[in-house]
Amino acid sequence: MVVTALELLLGARADSSLVRAGATQASAQAIIRADADTCAVLAETGAAVDDGTVVVHRSVTASGRSRARLGGVLVPVSTLGEALRGLVTIHGQSDQQLLLSHRAQQRALDRFGGTSTRRAVDAYREAFDRLAGGERLLDELTTNARDRARQADLLRFGLAEIEAVDPHPGEGARLREEAARLSHVDALRAGATTAHQLLTGGDEDLGTDVLSRLAAARKAVGDVSADDTQLGVFAEQLAAASYALSDCAADIASYLADLEADPLRLAAVQDRLSMLATLTRKYGDSVDDVLQWARTSAAALTALEADDDRRGAIEAEIGALRSTRDDAAAALTAARSTAAGALAAIVTSELTALSMTHSALVVSVEPAARAGRDGYDHVEFQLETTGGTERRTLSKGASGGELARVMLALEVALAGSSPGRTMVFDEVDAGVAGKAAVEVGRRLALLARSVQVIVVTHLPQVAAFADDHVTVVKDESDVVTTSGVHALDGPGRRRELSRMLAGLEDSETALAHADELLEVAREGRPTTP
To answer: Which of 14, 68, 226, 403 could disulfide-link to 96, CB 3.0 to 4.6 Å?
Structure first.
């Protein structure tokens, strides 16, 4: 119940089965004392922090909907995990199975190694990622080389075809206009000749020319314009028209002089238009579009042709990156090896205190079968027994009780580097009994000197070492069974320990045994970490 509530408050996935039948929702609430860094994170969410403490609330409805409040502010559930990450670390029996994972063992070793190992890990991962990126790029260039070569050939062909024709901007429109003129030269000459004769006179059949008539009209009006100013205006307008028509007649005459039939030029223009039409069918709707395609394709071809040079440069860079990665891997291996020896020594000492006198932890750091983002190392925790004559991997040889004690010894060793200020142990002492259970209680008490420790246990030898003792009580007197957590005073603690020892709360023998356990715990409780 306690562990489930804590997991909900830390952002774990909600399960509607937690809601009691007939109830609308289940909820959990806690008051958490946060350090300065966590308070700063909480402030960003808008949560109210009172003297370093914050109230966390989580509810889940029968329909499965979940709500989270942080310092009175409604927040996404994911925010709980982000804001409270590192405050609480929960260990259950399933975590003992995680201890069997090489990856978990490696993470534990790296955490124990502290700053030096963390820096070595970061340096290696940076080198590994840079090398992986370079190798992906090189693979892409190599894999697509054939497609790029084919694309380059097509671009070269198109550019060569355009270069052979050598089109110019606007050339198509100009050539079509010239072709139309050369194709209709006789009709154009006839029309221009008639217009010129009408303006200047040159054919008696057409009558008096326009310019002569205009001159006569201008003279007739001009002779009498002195008697009427309005006629003077008409005279000026006729003069302007005469000048304009004279200029037009001269232009027509010049046009006729240049207008000649040129079958050879017409054929050349039509051939040129045919070549431009071939280009526009392939590369654009107009000559200007064709020229734009040529500019774009030339840039693309340059980039494709540069890939070979680029591939060579990348290959050289990959060589340097590989060397950097190998150096970083060697430094990481050295850091882990140093940390492995220190961790093994501390855990072995703890195991001796936990009644595993002839056992020692060996932290093996060997070359891995394949390098990965975590380095070249294969980290394995091994348990050495019977004076060093036998060595077993935790995954194959350690019993449940041994795993529980190894886990506890590791936590004591890692306490200084633990990211959590509160540790919850949920029945991790399963399979432990007798003198070993007493030592488990003593080591948990030692761990509690540096961090807050909450232990869920059925062992009286462990419970006796606690500073505070609470018990979960079920009430089945009503239709609905309820459970509650009750803090125990001195007498209540004696009775609970006697019940845990012999199943008897009021047995004088059991109570005496409980008193003995409490005395052992008082005398054996460590005073320094």
So the answer is: 403
